[in-house]
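User: Could you check the structure of this?
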Amino acid sequence: MANPQTNEVRRLIRLGLPLVLTFASDWGLVTTATIASSWISASAVAAVGLTFTLGMSTVAFFFVTLSALTVITADLLGSGRSNKVGALMKSGLSLAAVFCGVLAAMLVVLWYALPYLLPSAEAAQIAQDFLSVMGWFVPFELFGYVFVFISNGLGRTFWVGVISVLSIPLLIVLTWALAFGNFGFEAMGTHGIALAILITWSIRAAAFLLLVLQKEFSNIHFFGNVVETGLNDRGRILKIGVPLGLSEISTHGWLAVIGVLVAQLGTVILATHNIAFNIFVLAHICVFGLTRATVIRLGALVGEIGSGAHLWPFLRTALTVILCFSCLTLGVVSIGSGQIAAYYSDDIQVVRVLTGLLVLVAALRVIDDLGLFFQASLEGLQRTSKIPLVRALTQWVVGVPICILMSRWLGLYGVWIGMGFTLLCAACLFYWQLRRGITESDLPLPSSY
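Assistant: Sure, the predicted structure tokens are below.
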């Protein structure tokens, strides 16, 4: 008979693997666009990369705020109150409608700001054209992700992963056809990349709506279900989700500032940085699924037992699994840095700088994975209030000044060293907050942890 730790590992992987596919789908969008634009020109990859960074900074708050639906759903399910999920879904959809209107205005402001943020008029024109087409898929995604987050909270992550992964080949085919003029289409360059993204992600968002056909939704009544204050209303979503959204704003805003800083070092350096960051995020692919599975499982455990006496064994197990995957990624990226760089770009200067930089990028991935695990643990315990404070302190008070100073001494390498120090500070503070939060909850803290 399997021991509890083995069962938790299996449960984490079962929950997390489909979420890995979701993450792969989301960043497959960025990766496909980055690689395709790098085959067009250095200006194209610089413009597309910075547009993605700034665009994500714009929309991140709204998506991450809605992600609170996952842990609330898991809590309701664990406590035997799954009949309250219908009203929670109603609250989520109403928030998504409000967020759509705000996002539309923010994307228009970003479009006008792009010419002031890019190093050349050509890059600015490419970025504006790209955003004006691609940005239309965001409202569809907001509504679709309400169903994704609810489904994840119910422990039903399989079809979310399937829908997400099937969108990748569709995106690649459409990019190949529309951007480079294959299958009888006219080559449209970066405009074609944006069209491919819009079409693919609109289809994916529509497919997410079909998640309600799963049997777990059969007992969830959307109409006639009463919203209860503090349980499944908009207030609870915002109480848990807004700190997460603010944290994401801080992170993406910080990354946007880093991108603008790197842009001042030249187009080739900016292109190299954009590719390096894309690899940095993709290297998180397995750990992302496991951290989201940690949130779901912790939410359910808190709902089941009402205290944290049995949470520490689970947290130790989850951390061990995450570190194994993280170290494996470190080895793969470090050993294959040259081949990875050559795959992303055929520009000799970009490949030369990127090959050496990727070893540092892989090492920083391990540090960030630790920080994200501790943050996910706080989210699963629904103790999110201090998360944005930690991010703001480490990224803006510590991170930005260090990145600026280090860039003057070591260029792009200095920027990444400064980013690494920022991530290390965040990981330490999140761990401290987790220990403090558990102590305040009157939970036993084993000395061996």
